[in-house]
Fold this sequence. Notes:
The chain is of the alpha+beta class. The protein has one domain (22-56, 109-272). Helix content is 21%, strand content 33%. It has a 5-stranded antiparallel beta sheet, sandwiched between helices. Strands 2-5-6-7-8 form a 5-stranded mixed beta sheet, with helices on one face. The longest helix is centred in the N-terminal third of the chain and has 20 residues, at 2-21. The radius of gyration is 21 Å and the shape is globular. The two termini are 39 Å apart.
Amino acid sequence: MRIIKSLALLSAAVLSTSAHAIRWFEVEIIAFKQAPSYSIKEDFSIEPEALTERNRLNLLLEGFNHTGYELCLQGRARFQDRSFIRTLTQGKSSPWCEPSRDYVSLFDTLPLSPSVEPQEHMDSIYLLDKSQLQFQDKLAQLQRKDLQPLLHTGWRFPEQSKRRAPNVVIVAGEQYKQPASITAAINREPLGSLVSPYISEETRAAAEFELQGLIKIHVRHYLYVTTDLDLKYEDEGKLRTARMSQYTRVYSGDIHYLDHPKIGVIFQIRKYKH
């Protein structure tokens, strides 16, 4: 019996040590639109195939939904529900703010950074609040060059294999909804497959964001970043899509730049508590 207890204690200690041995990182990202160039040779008139990767994580949509909830609590009328029907059925005439409501669909343009409760732990992947970001100087440099940032965000994550690492869903910029003055690309995977439970059925079927896609970060001796981002833009009355697809090996602490005729991305992966 003592031997069995000793083995159980040893096994628990090994598992505990292994859990704490997993390294954690944080990534910070700025995505921006490139300046128009008449010398670009690429043809973006052919729509890329829909992204089909599974294991998606909706950190940003949940973060932007929380941002809308905070705006509701702050008294921003656009984000408050003053429904006449709700007043009749529930007897409430005051503005209503509920965390589970769909606030994302109320934005014409998403904020540059989602606002979330700052966290400091290594329990699960989580979004960084804008107060925890460090690239303010990079934003200022882009703005001095008249380049338009679309997204400034980051998240903390444990080291994971390519198979286990999630595809973090990226959304940013203007939100296009049907019906619209522009012609949306047809036969494409609807955004509903990307969104969180907060998003309404109507928004699931109709919403298209100016920037959307997936970013995966996995570890195999080195850090690897897989980036698939679509930038939507108007061209001759139609909504076109330019895709950036890159696979990059990186070192923690280095600042990296991904270049594309339509999109630019600046990012850094930093060690977190190790």
